[in-house]
Amino acid sequence: xxxxxxxxxxxxxxxxxxxxxxxxxxxxxxxxxxxxxxxxxxxxxxxxxxxxxxxxxxxxxxxxxxxxxxxxxxxxxxxxxxxxxxxxxxxxxxxxxxxxxxxxxxxxxxxxxxxxxxxxxxxxxxxxxxxxxxxxxxxxxxxxxxxxxxxxxxxx
Length: 156
Hints:
single chain, Immunoglobulin-like, 5-stranded antiparallel sheet, 3-stranded antiparallel sheet, 2 helices, 12 strands, about 10% helix, about 50% strand, elongated
């Protein structure tokens, strides 16, 4: 691999493919999750494997007047799908301790996730919704290889 590719993987986190598998998530009882990583470019000295969890509350950014009557400008605004978003729950879960991850190998770690301190499951009701996202990553120097934010339904 050339020097440019090594630098690119350092900056982009492209030295591993990371996935997360959560068959069913709930705020009522702890549930299992599996983080998987395929090490693609070179050995990785991981400080840890971790999982970030966030719950966001979304409200339509435009609300019509209480009488329900809209001006022409309000009608145009009401057709735009814009949302005000606020993160209402965050959690970081350590999945695995420091370890050497060898190039060409695939790794899998199981972890129990407890969201019983959360208040709201996934829901959508017209101009209001609650969403949950999960993000698995390997903590390494440079940019952490990760799964990206994965949206999942979390039940009550």
